[in-house]
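Could you join me in thinking about how sequence relates to backbone shape in a protein? We need material for that, and I hope you will provide a protein of your own picking. Label the sequence line and the structure token line clearly, so we can match residues to local backbone shapes. Would you write everything just below, so we can both look at the same thing?
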Amino acid sequence: MQDDATARWRHEHHFGQDRRRPGESRTQLVIVITAAMMVIEIAAGVLFGSMALLADGLHMASHAVALGINAYAYAYARRHAHDASYSFGTGKVNTLGGFTGAVLLAAFALLMVSESVQRLVSPIPIAFNQAIGVAVLGLVVNGLSMLILGHHDHEQRHDQHDHHDDHHDHDHDHDHDHDHEHEHEQARGAHDHNLASAYLHVLADALTSLLAIVALLAAKYFGLTWMDPFMGLVGAVLVARWSFGLLKTTTAVLLDRSATEEARTAVKDSIERVDGNRVVDLHLWCIGLNLYSAALTVVTARPRAPEHYKGLLPGDLHIVHATVEVHALTEVR
């Protein structure tokens, strides 16, 4: 009987992370395509002596590994979503996969630089026709992969709609007004950032394939053989930039860095716009894909139940776990 009486104040902490995300199957398909093309380009680069082609193959390898880690992270997060030992669910598993992939990308970039410099110092003969053919094939494959990953928005919104329909409101310290949140979420059009990242991987692969084609054509028709290893260096720069960008964003999430000042201001304004409330302490941080947790202290002359203040929180921030501490403001005489 006691359990029934307190049920309304309890809820799960998986936040929909036990669901299979719409982009997961698409990502797995692209992994297979990318891995096959990676093997062809690396073999052709070695066989035909093209550093640009080899660099493109290594670039695809780095993305295949990163996408593979993300696919594993998707599955792991689902399997362990209900594990109570994860305080805020398994949302950060995907972030950890992205961080690991970024580290691997940095290593691949260094390898590409090393090989390109070696080819600049000691050029080797290139079988241009074969190398160009393989590079064009790589560009076509990357374009196909972009098409596979490029039409996921509707599925994501449908999946998020189902997730919020299954979520129920809770009248306890971990509550949030999910109907309000859902309205703002639909207006904002939240995205699967991992899938968007995968799309950017493939887009970068397509650009690197294009660089390889340009380099091989320049070398074949204008005798600019240095263009081939030079484009290898350009490809390495692209990989390194993506790697460092991903390291920056994933590290911020893994270290529980506070949300942006804009988001923090939105939370404060939503609470302080009524009853003369004052937010004297605020912690807002990411706990998963488009998911945030908040802990705040409110001082007010008109104290209300914690769920009242949770209902004021901006829904478009996806604050799925909120803890509110309320103190009555008393005048000092």
Remarks:
- Confidence is low (pLDDT under 50) at residues 152-191.
- The radius of gyration is 25 Å.
- Strands lie at 278-288, 291-300, 319-328.
- DSSP finds eleven helices and three strands in the chain.
